[in-house]
Amino acid sequence: MASPFTSTLTLVSVLVISLFASSSGNQFISAIGDPGMKSQNIRVSFEAWNFCNEVGKEAPGMGSPRMADCADLYCPLIADSLGNHLHGHTNECEVHQKVAKSDNLLAAGDKFPDSHFKPYTDPDLFAVEKELYLGSLCEVDSSNDPWQFWTVMLKNGNFDTKTSLCPENGKKVSPIVTDRKFPCFGEGCMNQPLVYHNWSKVFSSDQSSSLVGSFYGTYDLDADLSKGIGSNSYFSVSWNKNKKTCSWVFSHKLVTSAKYPWLMLYLRSDATKGFNGGYHYEGRGIMKKLPESPNFKVQLTLDIKEGGGPNSQFYLMDIGSCWKNNGEPCDGDAETDVTRYSEMIINPETTSWCRPNNLVSCPPYHISLSGEKIYRNETSRFPYSAYHLYCGPGNGAYLEKPVDICDPYSNPQAQELVQILPHAEWAVHGYPAKKGDGWIGDSRTWTLDVGALSSRLFFYQDPGTQPAKRVWTSLNVGTEIYVSQTGQTAEWTVSDFDVLLSETGDSV
């Protein structure tokens, strides 16, 4: 039975969503299982990847790099002298764990406690199955529309071109022949991390109780974190409640090192079924309904404490999906599927690579707010400073030249990338208008018209094909510290996260 506190929070969330309306009267519904992060119970998973979004090889003693912390807070009711129900004393609250330590330690080849899940010996296949298994333990059945968890994603940017671990634009190739430069300290540089877990527990103060917990660790397999971070790589994600807003606050920290100069850490709102952005298999997440351009907004509070240095591509919003070059939805065929990403980088040190003298880093055209196409060679009109870079999918047959092909190895299929910067063009949709907006010392609660902005971006399609439906399966916030020359630290918090769909289907 749900506690009265849970019911109250659910009612508050519903009221907030029902009141969120535009001047035209559009009503909005939340697409996620935990609107605004208001639930008193925690649902969070952890996943780690090598360069091409696979596992490759598990870290010693860590099991498959898929974990979860899914816990319910129970506070018994007591009655006062008049018989009114009151919440019990804070020290009477308890936590009920949905996931056991043994579940998180499952490694390739281990049998799952539930025989419906297959004990693959291949580490890549086992990780997929383990995510589905953990999802079944964490699942919340909400009006027959189940959801599982928020997802913390950690990725290692090292790539050993002497291995055959990563495909090239979705095709298995060996040996890899490329003139692109990737960081790698030698054999084993694509390893998975050591991951430690502070299980969610009850934290009580001022006669109120909530849950706190964390995941943390390092890619340095010989590190002893009990002696401090030192010169090692490091990551941590912790969660606690903001007592004033009742939102979860996810606190992130990411530290690069000489051996691991390219690391990524995101908080992801992923689809509860089907593909997630960047993957080619069934996943789990928190988005019960998939947002489609242009009819959705995202709300969140972002507070950046440390930026991660000049190469930190901090994404206020990174949206990901997948469709083929002919506009058809992806079906798992990695040779014809294409991952599509759009990312707003708010680090003010990030410059525009798209320039009149470097059209190769610009999309073929920009779409104005009125819908007009402005081509990249129209130097007096094209907003070059609104773009960091554009790169096309490696399997696109009719790409307009000049064009730079996106890195063909860092996803399991070809990818297309549109990276944008703070600019007046995007500010009309609630995004930063200028460099420095929302950066260190400028914590903000954002309402981003992600649907409207994403409908304006150029994405490649084969000529004469029906335009793809831009349905987004992953909405992410976090940073990619790109090949730092020295050890860098990024630190930030995310809270109040929600994805709002127009109930009428009209543009929001």
From TrEMBL:
Limits of the DUF7705 domain = 29-501
Q: What keywords appear on the UniProt entry? A: Signal
Recorded hits in InterPro entries, A to Z, give:
DUF7705 (IPR056122)
- Under what name is this protein listed? DUF7705 domain-containing protein
Give the signal peptide, or none.
1-25
Matching entries from Pfam families are given as: DUF7705 (PF24804)
Give the organism the record lists: Aristolochia fimbriata (White veined hardy Dutchman's pipe vine)
Keyword Signal included in the entry's annotation: yes
